[in-house]
Design goal:
This protein is an alpha+beta fold and about 210 residues long. The protein has two domains: about 120 residues, Quinone Oxidoreductase, Chain A, domain 1; about 70 residues, NAD(P)-binding Rossmann-like Domain (Rossmann fold, 3-Layer(aba) Sandwich). Helix content is about 25%, strand content about 25%. Strand 8, helix 3 and strand 9 form a beta-alpha-beta unit. The N and C termini lie far apart (about 50 Å). The mean pLDDT is about 95. Keywords: NADP, Oxidoreductase. This is Alcohol dehydrogenase. It comes from Klebsiella variicola.
């Protein structure tokens, strides 16, 4: 049996209920994982609240986690029992002690990365990679603006962009978060509650913009 959290009905945190479920054997292309860490992301709230429809009744939320492989399906050759793995993306179901998941969704965790880090940064890390290398390849000397620079994704984007040599202007929602954004590498931090922040961005970049 495996303990899992289900969305009993759309609503607030109180609709999450702990239930025991039997973990069936993995399908031919799946692996079974004993999870050690799960990532909690804002998209989970969208499904729990009903803003996004549940894929099935009393769904188990969560799109990110990491743990140890305990069993593999008959077609799986890339992973074996005992491997440390992490994942993000569909199918949802991370809020559980154990789960089955397609092997194609997994990566093996390198020896130098601890399971907690891997399981809590996959979604944000891949999003940051897409933004900085695919949507637009950020280069040394670029000015970029990172909204919510003190948040989980914002800090990763800010640190990564700074390592690439970019100059980062961050925004935060409160003065208390300014220090966090600066610690991540933002050279300038503005409050997005200040209606004049676009003008300040132009001033900082001497009219160049971001």
């Amino acid at each position: 049996m495996s303990l899992a959290m289900i969305i009993s009905q759309p609503g607030g945190p109180e609709v999450l209920k702990a239930v025991e479920r039997e973990l069936v054997s993995p399908g031919p292309d799946e692996v079974s994982i004993r999870q050690e860490i799960i990532g909690v992301n804002f998209v989970d709230i969208y499904f729990r609240s009903g803003l996004y429809p549940q894929p099935y009744p009393q769904a188990v939320p969560g799109f990110e986690g990491a743990g140890v492989v305990t069993a593999t399906g008959s077609n799986v050759r890339s992973f074996a029992a005992g491997d440390r793995v992490a994942y993000t993306g569909n199918p949802m179901g991370a809020y559980a002690e154990c789960r089955n998941i397609p092997a194609s969704r997994l990566i093996r965790i390198p020896d130098g990365v601890d399971t907690r880090t891997a399981g809590s940064t996959m979604l944000r890390g891949l999003t940051a990679h897409m933004l900085l290398n695919k949507v637009r390849e950020v280069r040394a000397g670029d000015w970029i603006l990172v909204h919510s620079a003190a948040g989980g994704l914002g800090q990763i984007v800010t640190r990564w962009a700074t390592m690439k040599g970019a100059r980062v202007i961050g925004t935060t929602g409160s003065p208390e978060k300014v220090a966090t954004a600066r610690l991540a590498g933002a050279s300038e931090v503005l409050l997005h509650t200040d209606a004049a922040w676009p003008d300040k961005v132009r001033d900082i970049t001497e009219g160049y913009g971001v």
